[in-house]
Amino acid sequence: PAIPRVGSLFTDRDCTMSTDPKKRFLNTILRKFVTANPELASASVMTKDGIMLSAVTEHGINHDRLGAMGSSILSLANRVSHELKKGDVKQNIINSEQGLVVITGLSSHAVVVVTCLDGSKLGKVINLSNSLVKNIIASNKTLEIIPLDAIDAFV
Fold this sequence. Notes:
Number of helices: 4
Number of strands: 6
Largest sheet: 6 strands, antiparallel
Structural class: alpha+beta
Oligomer: single chain
Distance between the termini: 29 Å
Radius of gyration: 15 Å
Mean pLDDT: 79
């Protein structure tokens, strides 16, 4: 059974109204992907420095704060991984009381953040996140919107 969304989807106005083809490209892919997968509550692409490139979320999400917190989580996870001599982090999973957050590497400079509601299956959400990354990379190769040397995904 499909998990109902709490509210309607909201696309960051800066991404929707932008003349920047990279933001519009990402926005289109994210919106289609979240709409096609009802277990997803949101999807966004941000730099590892915390700058939001595109976001399709529910109302009330502060994209700047999400970017800053995502960047902090990535930094901390990488420090732990390197301390344990496990190399760079490929994916972060946050399992909370009300759902999952999966942060997956897109390139050496960007990540995809996917959230879902409580009750979603972890394996399915991980597969959806990986699929979204592959979809962005494949679409980009066809459309050549983002410089291909910036996309060095490790999926």
